[in-house]
Design goal:
Helices cover 49% and strands 13% of the residues. It has 451 residues and is α/β, with parallel strands linked by helices. Helix 2 runs parallel beside helix 3, helix 10 crosses helix 12 and helix 19 crosses helix 20.
Amino acid sequence: MNKILVIDDEEHLCWALEKGLRQEGYQVITATRGKEGLELIQKETPSLVLLDLKMPEMDGLEVLVKARELFPKLLVIMITAHGSIDTAIEAMKLGAIDYISKPFDLNELKIVVRQALMVSRLREEVVFLRSELNKKHGRILGNSPAIQEVNNLIERVADSNATVMITGESGTGKEVTALSIHNLSYRREKSYVPINCAALPETLLESELFGHEKGAFTGAVSRKLGRFELADKGTIFLDEVTEMPLSMQVKLLRVLQERQFERVGGTESIKVDVRVIAATNRDPLDCIKRGTFREDLYYRLNVLPIHIPPLRERSEDISLLTMHFMQRFNPSQEQMISPEALTLLMNYEWPGNIRELQNVIERSVILSQGQEIKVQHLPKEIQKVENKKNDADQGLILNFPDKGISFDEVERELILKALEKSRGNQTKAAQLLGLTRSALLYRAQKYQVKL
């Protein structure tokens, strides 16, 4: 039940409003002095306050200011005398949501109160739904320790203004990560503007990033706003930033340092407040060594680094992702996947990562025609994984020489093979050998195996 507080020095008006609003189902309390009203606001936390503008000792504006300091979201409707409209407008600037002038019709007041409470409820619902949406879509899908760590990083860096550098192979979800950071930040109400730095030639890239003035070059028939300008107060996502030409890297570095730029063909400096998130599928340090990426730009971008692991290093997430994509591409019914098909998906290396898995599931959903996804619905390269598994089931084959063999050499060779198969992932290599990661590290150190 909504609780309404009436603060007015006219006792008969308080009585009339209390009686009329109780008929509408509201709980009503009254006060005839401003100080008494403030005490009731603290004690009763009303849903809405009807506040008279003209009162002795403490007027309505003073009560309004102090009440809003206590509860910034408190709904306050001012009651004004005829001829006090300017003061009522001042009250709305101070946080009142509406005003009604004396003398007023009680039914009119009831409508104003009902609408104010309805709008407040709708706003609360929007905030709640947006919060739930951010909880759902503000995290990368997966239960593996690696992805849990990524999600923890996203939550920790979201409300910072520092630049973020996201690294990871193609298809791992770098743009999803960038969008998650934006959606969880205080900038989420503003624009999220992505641009692929590898998709445009240098001449077009400068215009896309910083905009251009009319007549700046052939074809510039009007002024164009650049991505940085469009992202003001929001977030810009620079995908494949290591593919940016060196000359453009210099200009980007200046924007990051000074937070201002000029449009192509222009002389006016434009200041922007933009959160920058960059991403690359390459090793930035390797690009620096090859001279294709500026070291100073790297350190400017790499303030908050996030690395997205490839799907092969978090195979425990494959079943969850599979079910997610099956629901996306066939939302009308609950589709199943055979254990044999799921096993193949779990054993596949996924060079294209999550993007490849998504495409495979979309294809399989279509081919299965809404029925259970089986092995024959999967691509041929994934079906071949079964043969590899069958070969492995034959057991370990060793050529045992007559003169014997060094057990240490065998163990060292097994560690090297496991690291090769896991592409250097220590946790997966340890799993392949039936060891804990700490045991693998101990044996690697013992046999001088470089990790």
